[in-house]
TrEMBL record:
<keyword id="KW-0573">Peptidoglycan synthesis</keyword>
<dbReference type="InterPro" id="IPR012338">
    <property type="entry name" value="Beta-lactam/transpept-like"/>
</dbReference>
<dbReference type="GO" id="GO:0016757">
    <property type="term" value="F:glycosyltransferase activity"/>
</dbReference>
<dbReference type="Pfam" id="PF03717">
    <property type="entry name" value="PBP_dimer"/>
</dbReference>
<keyword id="KW-0812">Transmembrane</keyword>
<feature type="compositionally biased region" description="Pro residues">
    <location>
        <begin position="656"/>
        <end position="666"/>
    </location>
</feature>
<keyword id="KW-0133">Cell shape</keyword>
<dbReference type="InterPro" id="IPR005311">
    <property type="entry name" value="PBP_dimer"/>
</dbReference>
<feature type="region of interest" description="Disordered">
    <location>
        <begin position="626"/>
        <end position="666"/>
    </location>
</feature>
<feature type="compositionally biased region" description="Low complexity">
    <location>
        <begin position="644"/>
        <end position="655"/>
    </location>
</feature>
<keyword id="KW-0328">Glycosyltransferase</keyword>
<keyword id="KW-0378">Hydrolase</keyword>
<dbReference type="GO" id="GO:0008658">
    <property type="term" value="F:penicillin binding"/>
</dbReference>
<dbReference type="GO" id="GO:0009252">
    <property type="term" value="P:peptidoglycan biosynthetic process"/>
</dbReference>
<feature type="domain" description="Penicillin-binding protein transpeptidase">
    <location>
        <begin position="277"/>
        <end position="613"/>
    </location>
</feature>
<feature type="domain" description="Penicillin-binding protein dimerisation">
    <location>
        <begin position="65"/>
        <end position="241"/>
    </location>
</feature>
<keyword id="KW-0645">Protease</keyword>
């Protein structure tokens, strides 16, 4: 067997090939080392901070903290909506979570009934991964301590302290302020397309969203900006310890100051007692709304936690409708409180206020008798007397004479048939009839008939208003110059909002306004006025002017009597009263509506107006100083001095008096 042989034809050729391969492999190796070194430099120098953050992210976690909701305060800084501490029990959903077992363990530490258990299990099933679900709120300190002591034995369970909205006055401001509640599925759907919404905050179990009134209208301003707490976690994401140094503090929401006065509002709800209705008060000089009370009300604190189905059904089905805001949303016929408007319209149409109308208790027109509220009638009435006595026959004839359009124009100028920009939704325009309105509304009978004008003149028929509009009308009459707009929001985050007196003048001569106001003053201060006894403030020379109203809701002919005795509540008359005071220098105007009160404006609404007006006047420093001003000492002559009750003179010397007759004690 021959051995292999190696033949080198050319030594220099073999050596050249070796050198080329060596350089090629060396070049590849160098490029590899250079790329490796560059990548190491990039990781260690350029991207060091990024990977350091990623590493810290595996070790530390941030838990979202909802911001404290902004406070809502009254005009004097009294808290109407604030926040209080709230101990909560939370389960954080995880893929390995045994919800049934965790709920069994928790039931041994805190009371969990079947309804609550079913709700929590349902929410856990629907919640996304790692989303927190609230099991209980408002834990006692003992319950909160029991959970925290056993926290290592309860995976994915946390007991922490958050904040919950609280309304110190319960139902007094429930309609105007509103309330907050959990974010609903409908809210989440509406926020999905809004890039400005904090989606993570909306899903947080401790977050609440405004649902009505100021809370809803200014929800974004009240929310604030969320913060976060820094925690160290293990590989499974469980909290090992807290790192307060890394916390991101939340930014509280903005404070909102309202023009309301807590004392006046509370007194208004107090005097309404169990009646249904509304009371609105406005500053005649600025347009600030001092009171917007709707009765009956509801406790907004109950809605923060969430009502049961039975509780909500009871509120919704109660015939006096506590969930309805009767200051803006409820509309009613104004009755005789509309007569000052009709009188002003008649003056604008050229009616002489001294012209007389004879009231005999009824007036025949259109094949029927239109009755006055006073049997036997008021006799001869001019405009002043007709307002004072609330004579229906006078205003029947005035409305028929001038027609609906002048009344519509005057009513619109005084604030009826419109909404006001007070910052919160829910207002209804109501109805102020006119020829054009009927033409557009009634296609089958578009003509305004003379018989339509007759009830229109006494605030019945094609006229519906709300309590806010009545108060605005009264405030404009009292001001006598400016067409005031109501203002509810005083400031937001310290920024003052536009005032209600930054408006134009009323389109009425001052002498016309004075005639109407003098008639309203006679209602409350003339002993023969319709509300004399019920309108006496008892505050010295500070007097109130007003106008009563009774609005029927049924045809009296169906019962044969105007009496409300034995009539179902829903068929009883409404009772109304508008007023302003002091008459000589108006400061405050108001409207009172007692829904289905079944009495008269003078007996049901006027006494309530008097009590609320007294609170406003006594809180006004200038009015109080006027009331408390001492009376001047009377000037007296010596001859006017009386000796009755004076001490006897000192004894003097003189002859002895004769002894008394027999039988008279000495």
């Amino acid at each position: 067997m021959s051995e292999p042989s190696i033949f080198f034809f050319e030594v220099n050729e073999r050596q050249g090939v070796f050198h080329r391969r060596a350089f090629l492999l060396g070049g590849f190796t160098g490029l590899g080392l250079l790329a490796l070194g560059g990548r190491l430099a990039q990781l260690q120098l350029v991207e060091a901070q990024r990977y350091q953050k990623l590493s810290a992210g595996n070790q530390f976690n941030y838990r979202l903290v909802p911001p404290p909701r902004g406070l809502i305060l009254d005009r004097n800084g009294v808290s109407l909506a604030s926040n209080r501490p709230n101990f909560r029990l939370i389960i954080n959903k995880d893929k390995d979570l045994d919800a049934e077992a965790v709920m069994d363990d928790l039931a041994k530490l805190v009371p969990i009934d079947g309804t609550r258990r079913a709700r929590v299990l349902k929410e856990l099933d629907r919640a996304p991964k790692k989303a927190p679900v609230v099991v209980m709120e408002d834990l006692s300190w003992e319950e909160f301590s029991r959970i925290n002591i056993r926290a290592p034995e309860l995976p994915n369970v946390t007991a922490d302290m958050g904040e919950v909205r609280v309304y110190p006055f319960g139902g007094a401001f429930a309609h105007v302020i509103g309330y907050v509640a959990k974010v609903s599925d409908k809210d989440l759907e509406a926020a999905e397309s809004d890039s400005t919404q904090d989606q993570e905050l909306l899903h947080h179990p401790g977050f609440r969203i405004g649902k009505q009134g100021v809370e809803k209208a200014f929800d974004r301003q009240l929310r604030g900006k969320a913060g976060a707490t820094k925690t160290e976690v293990d590989a499974q994401g469980r909290v090992v310890r807290l790192d307060p140094a890394g916390d991101i503090p939340p930014t509280p929401g903005k404070e909102i100051h309202l023009t309301l006065d807590a004392d006046i509002q509370n007194r208004a709800l107090e005097v309404m007692d169990e009646e249904s209705g509304a009371i609105v008060m406005i500053d005649c000089r600025t347009g600030d709304v001092l009171c917007m009370a709707s009765a009956p009300s509801f406790d907004a604190n109950r809605l923060v936690k969430g009502l049961s189905g039975a509780e909500y059904k009871a509120l919704a089905e109660y015939e006096r409708k506590p969930l309805l805001d009767k200051t803006m949303t409820g509309v009613y016929p104004p009755g005789s409180t509309f007569k000052p408007t009709v009188a002003l319209a008649a003056l604008s149409a050229g009616v002489n206020p001294a012209e007389h109308v004879v009231c005999t208790g009824g007036w025949s027109f259109g094949g029927r008798v239109w009755h006055c509220h006073k049997k036997g009638g008021h006799g001869v009435q001019n405009m002043h007397d007709a307002i004072k006595n609330s004579c229906d026959v006078y205003f029947y004839q005035m409305a028929l004479r001038i027609g609906p359009d002048p009344i519509h124009t005057t009513a619109t100028a005084l604030g009826f048939g419109q909404t006001f920009d007070i910052g919160i939704p829910g207002q209804r325009k109501g109805l102020v009839g006119s020829r054009e309105w009927k033409k557009q509304t009634f296609k089958r009978d578009p003509v305004w008939h003379p018989g339509d004008s007759v009830p229109y003149g006494i605030g019945q028929g094609y006229i519906n208003v709300n309590a806010l509009q009545l108060a605005v009308m009264c405030a404009r009459l009292a001001n006598g110059k400016r067409a005031l707009n109501p203002r509810l929001i005083k400031s937001i985050g310290g920024v003052d909002q536009p005032h209600g007196d930054a408006v134009g003048d009323l389109p009425f001569p001052s002498e016309h306004l004075e005639i109407v106001r003098a008639g309203m003053a006679a209602v409350a201060n003339d002993p023969t006025g319709g509300a004399y006894k019920q309108s006496q403030l008892g505050l010295g020379d500070v007097l109130m002017a007003g106008k009563t109203g009774t609005a029927q809701v049924r045809q009296y002919s169906q019962t044969g009597s105007r009496s409300n005795q034995g009539v179902p509540w829903r068929l009883k008359d409404h009772n109304l009263f508008i007023a302003f005071a002091p008459y000589d220098n108006p400061r405050y105007a108001m409207s009172v509506l007692v829904e289905h009160g079944g009495l008269f404006g003078s007996s049901a609404a006027a006494p309530r107006a008097r009590e609320v007006m007294r609170v406003a006047l006594l809180k006004d420093p200038e009015i109080r100083a006027r009331i408390e001003k001492p009376m001047p000492m009377p000037t007296m002559n010596e001859s006017d001095l009386s000796t009755d009750g004076a001490a006897p003179d000192a004894p003097t010397d003189g002859p002895d008096l004769p002894p008394p007759p027999p039988g008279v004690p000495q």
